[in-house]
Amino acid sequence: NNDTEDEERLWRDLIMERVTKSADACLTAINIMTSPNMPKAVYIEDVIERVIQYTKFHLQNTLYPQYDPVYRVDPHGGGVLSSKAKRAKCSTHKQRVIVMLYNKVCDIVSSLSELLEIQLLTDTTILQVS
């Protein structure tokens, strides 16, 4: 049982390391695009869409559930609790890696707003950002 917990912790650490590296890659791409005097060839729509997909996914599946228990899904299929009951059971302690991811996602969103002022994007991309 103790080996299972250690293995699960190592697996979770590996996943969070990959998530953090992905956030760094998104930040790097967006920082390059929002740098002054960049040529039009730098604004690759596929990269922008993937950054938006990454951001939306981690907001919905990692950050919102961590900060608001109403978004959490009970993996054991427990009973349905009201939103007030879920919030009452919530602890306010956050893992350091989650706080770091939160800060990076905030930077990505901020940079995306800068990118919207710099470059014209398609309607579907604008809808995804909003």
From TrEMBL:
The Swiss-Prot or TrEMBL record annotates one GO molecular function as: chromatin binding
Q: What is the superkingdom listed in this entry's lineage?
A: Eukaryota
**Which InterPro entries does the entry mention?**
Scc2/Nipped-B
**UniProt-listed PANTHER family:** NIPPED-B-LIKE PROTEIN, NIPPED-B-LIKE PROTEIN DELANGIN SCC2-RELATED
Transmembrane region(s): none
Q: Which GO terms describe its biological process?
A: brain development; chromatin looping; digestive tract development; embryonic viscerocranium morphogenesis; establishment of mitotic sister chromatid cohesion; establishment of protein localization to chromatin; heart morphogenesis; regulation of gene expression
* Name listed for the protein in its UniProt record: NIPBL protein
GO terms for cellular component: Scc2-Scc4 cohesin loading complex
Q: Provide the species name.
A: Psilopogon haemacephalus (coppersmith barbet)
